[in-house]
From TrEMBL:
This is Nuclear transport factor 2 family protein. InterPro entries: NTF2-like_dom_sf, SnoaL-like. It comes from Haloarcula onubensis. It holds the Pfam family SnoaL_3. Residues 4-124 form the SnoaL-like domain.
Length: 126
């Protein structure tokens, strides 16, 4: 599987309420470098990111993920991407909908592509 397919699988897993923590790399012993910034949080370190994603999966449902402009560059062991994503979900009886911008970095480790950085922000005009 290449980096683009991994990103598409992540989007599909989000849509279907499947676990997302497995898409993120484990920290290497020498660093605490895995980072995920979402619409309302910043998680640092693989353990924090993975727990945050498990909590998100447990507390949300009915995700809509509309990828509008996915761009991926892949090299031997690193890839980076950006996308414009229509994002919506249910949480606590309330529907949340945003136009978002995504960017991230994946690393090829042990035969798989894993996120080492993911940033999701709300797209607004100033």
């Amino acid at each position: 599987m290449d980096a683009r397919a991994t990103i598409h699988d992540y989007y599909d897993s989000l849509r279907h309420g499947a676990p997302l923590d497995t898409f993120f790399a484990d920290d290497r012993p020498e660093d605490d470098a895995v980072v995920k910034c979402g619409v309302s949080e910043r998680l640092v370190g693989a353990d924090s990111v993975k727990q945050g994603l498990r909590d998100q999966t447990a507390s949300t449902s009915d995700w809509a993920v509309d990828s509008r402009d996915l761009r991926v560059t892949q090299r031997d062991t690193v890839a980076w991407f950006s996308d414009d994503v229509g994002l919506a979900w249910d949480e606590g009886g309330q529907r949340h909908e945003f136009d978002t911008r995504w960017s991230g970095t994946l690393e090829h480790r042990a035969g798989d592509w894993s996120f080492v950085g993911l940033h999701v922000s709300v797209a607004t005009d100033l």
